[in-house]
Amino acid sequence: SEPAEAIRRIDRESVHRICSGQVVLSLGTAVKELVENSLDAGATSIDVRLKDHGVELIEVSDNGGGVEEENFEGLTLKHYTSKIQDFSDLTHVETFGFRGEALSSLCALSDVTISTCHKSAKIGTRLVFDHNGKITQKAPYPRQQGTTVSIQQLFHTLPVRHKEFQRNIKKEYAKMVQILQAYCIISKGVRINCTNQVGQGKKSPVVSTTGGLHLKENIGAVFGKKQLQSLIPFVQLPPSEAVCEEYGLKSTDLPEKLYSKEMFAKMEIIGQFNLGFIIAKLNSDLFIIDQHATDEKYNFEMLQQHTVLQGQKLIVPQNLNLTAVNETVLIENLEIFRKNGFDFVINENAPVTQRVKLISLPTSKNWTFGPQDIDELIFMLSDCPGVMCRPSRVRQMFASRACRKSVMIGTALNVQEMKKLVTHMGEIEHPWNCPHGRPTMRHIASLDLIAAE
Ligand code: ADP
Ligand code: MG
User: Fold this and answer.
1) pLDDT of residue 21
2) Residue 19 confidence (pLDDT)
3) C-alpha R_g of the chain
């Protein structure tokens, strides 16, 4: 059989099943995917270098196993992975990533360069990729064992997203730091260091750990000694072992896998804290839930799923100047465009690239939409045809609507009302974060552990 680390194509059916939604990357997910790859490669030392908070450059270097020459081509091709072969493998995946599309997505969204030296190679290689993930330059490159992935100008291939990325960089950066901190804490025995350089200024440290073997050391390194004394930590801590066992959870997973949605219906409401938080108990685990954030996420997902945006007819139908491929993607996904308030007339007899005319745009009091939003939808749909999705600005609009209609901090809630909010968490796709990325809940303590102290 093939060596475990050879990079192979996943079969089509599995691809379809895995492709569960749109892969819209953020700075946080980009860094997360790269750090996961380094951890998967067995690195004990990982350096993350950012320029201008990640706008100019995101670079992750590791001392892991490196990539073998025969795997260079597969590195960035969509759905190529060394980690699974078919869907049944998914249930056994021990490594973090499994979809084989992080590097291919990053190539589509930015300028990617990889230098690597496999443990069996005499000298390293530097590879430059184009936006299709094809290698355009390949040259010998002296370096120690391991891999460096450089991402320049993330999102520059999607002008609207790129602008938004730069505009929201503070938030993106804050979220990325949180994710990195979580990895720093859970990665025992791995030294992680992250720096940021603004313009030509000097590098400033973002977060760093010493590769300690204990969670406690890592928490100390990330938050400083002071934080240890208060320990509601900023990151999700795993539930107790008993709960993990009962729900088949792995305590090293990220929040979405750390908890199971079935847990919510079974939680017992203990009470409200500071008119803003629900305290709930499951077996011997105590959780604190942000009442506004969680209601906001529920309302947001309901809007995302069910809202049919009203379109406003244009006076003059508008040409879109689409490429032939994009035109086909649009024609094949008309229903999804309609749900988003975009409508078109299709003239089958017109020459290819001239077949589509825009006749209706979504409208809302404070938002205007245009061809860039159509381009963005086409980009998402060419990845996952037929899967309902929304342009990022529609998402933003829903997020602000959801915020306005959700229960506010400062509102007293009775047990039934709290129970309803917590039950809702088990009914939605992604209850772990509010639409703006703030966590909705945290594990505070295990009563067993407290009793044992
Ligand atoms: P996945 O991690 O899901 O397999 P990725 O697109 O993240 O998909 O990576 C594709 C492949 O590239 C991985 O399966 C792995 O073989 C290789 N790879 C990526 N990053 C590294 C790294 N830092 N060190 C060694 N191999 C890597
Ligand atoms: Mg990966």
Assistant:
1) 28
2) 39
3) 24
Q: What's residue 160's pLDDT?
A: 83
Cα dihedral sign for 151, 153, 157, 159?
positive
Which pLDDT does position 1 carry in this prediction? 44
Output 123-126 pairs: Cβ under 8 A, ≥24 positions apart: 124/66, 125/69, 125/72
DSSP 8-state symbol, 166: H
The beta strand positions in 86-214, using DSSP E, are: 111-117, 124-129, 135-141, 146-152, 191-197, 204-208
Residue type, 267: M
Query: Are 59 and 148 in contact, with CB atoms under 8 Å apart?
Result: yes
Report whether residue 47 contacts ligand 1, using a CB cutoff of 6 Å.
Answer: no
Where do the domains of the chain lie, and which CATH numbers do they carry?
A: 12-221 (3.30.565.10), 234-262 (no CATH), 267-453 (3.30.1540.20)
d(CA 10, CA 240): 35
How far apart are the two ends of the chain, measured CA to CA in Å?
A: 51
**For 237-253, what is each residue's pLDDT tens digit?**
556 666 667 766 665 55
Alpha-carbon distance of 279 to 390, in angstroms, equals 34
Average pLDDT over residues 209-228: 68
SS3 labels along 380-428: HHHHCCCCCCCCHHHHHHHHHHHHHHCCCCCCCCCHHHHHHHHHHHCCC
Tokens, residue 279: 């305290």
- 185 Cβ below 6 A of ligand 1: no
> Is residue 112 lining ligand 1, measured as CB closer than 6 Å?
no
Ligand 1 atom 17, closest CA: 75
CA of 88 to the centre of ligand 2 (A): 18
| Residue type present at position 313 | K
What is the pTM assigned to this prediction? 0.54
Beta bridge partners of 344: 358
Q: Specify the pLDDT at position 24.
A: 42
148 CB less than 6 Å from ligand 1? no
Position 96 confidence tier, pLDDT thresholds 50, 70, 90: very low
DSSP 60: E
